Amino acid sequence: MSGDEQQAFRAALEDLRVWDSGLAGFDPEDVPDLPMVLFQRWFVEAAASGQVEPHAMTLATVDGEGRPDVRTLLLHDADERGWHFASHATSAKGGQLAARPWAALGFYWPTPGRQVRVRGAVSALGEEESRADLAVRSTGALAAALTGRQSEVLGSAEELARASQAAWERARSEPDAAVPTWTRYVLAADEVEFFQGDDRRRHVRLRYRRADPATTGGWSRELLWP
């Protein structure tokens, strides 16, 4: 990187401003007993605020050497079981989750100035739910799943173009085509943190923790220093 490029980067970085005005309010004393209820409420409010793609989230896993890995993907559902997402079982994330079935999720909604962090155990759901997950998605999503080979080394852009074209043709002609490696996962949280930004930097951090992570018991709540 040249000196000019480094200077331009730093100038752009230093000019950025965060959470100067227009942030949502949040009273940590007036919250539901269950973190999922608050998450769903915040999600709806983020969407209503005009936040682009509020269902986009980061997923952090650990590889076989104990090194963290992270990527962005989409939330497929959130219910009493936990936070749902999907991928190929043969992908890098699928292999990491099979070996070490714990993960963390991160949601960032800059429009209302909010973040949500989720940690817990991940389970692969069965074939029926995994097929149903793909069945309700777009033709493009099915084509991408049919292309497969996620995380493998790609020989060339032309190779991808050929595989993608074939997958699109099959997705259009077989909208119920099975993708055996496609897997729906659910993260059952034992810890969920809600972060509300504040223009005076008096950020509110509220953490829910399950009383006993080995059970589906109740939750405790505590405030954290920002």
Description:
The chain has 226 residues and is an alpha+beta fold. It has six helices and nine strands, in the order H-H-E-E-E-E-H-E-E-H-H-H-E-E-E. The chain has helices at 3-15, 35-48, 92-99, 127-135, 139-147, 157-173, and strands at residues 56-62, 68-74, 77-79, 82-88, 102-109, 114-124, 182-196, 204-210, 219-224. Strands 1, 2, 3, 4, 5, 6, 7, 8 and 9 form a nine-stranded antiparallel sheet that branches. Helix 5 (139-147) packs across helix 6. The longest helix is centred in the C-terminal third of the chain and has 17 residues, at 157-173. The chain is globular and about 55 Å long. The model has no long low-confidence stretch (mean pLDDT 92).
Give a brief outline of the structure.
The protein has 226 residues and is of the alpha+beta class.
Core attributes:
globular, 31% helix, 9 strands, single chain, 226 residues
What's the SSE blueprint?
Blueprint: H1 3-15, H2 35-48, E1 56-62, E2 68-74, E3 77-79, E4 82-88, H3 92-99, E5 102-109, E6 114-124, H4 127-135, H5 139-147, H6 157-173, E7 182-196, E8 204-210, E9 219-224
Helix pairs in contact: 5-6
Q: Determine Rg (CA atoms, Å).
A: 20 Å
The beta-strand count equals: 9
Residue-averaged pLDDT: 92
Give a quick account of the main beta sheet: strands, pairing sense, barrel closure: 9 strands, antiparallel
Instruction: Figure out the total of helices.
Output: 6
Strand percentage, roughly?
25-35%
Stretches where pLDDT is under 50 for at least 5 consecutive residues are none
Secondary structure category: alpha+beta
Secondary structure: helix percent: 25-40%
The SSE string, one letter per element, is HHEEEEHEEHHHEEE
- Span of the ends, CA to CA: 35 Å
Tell me, what's the shape?
globular
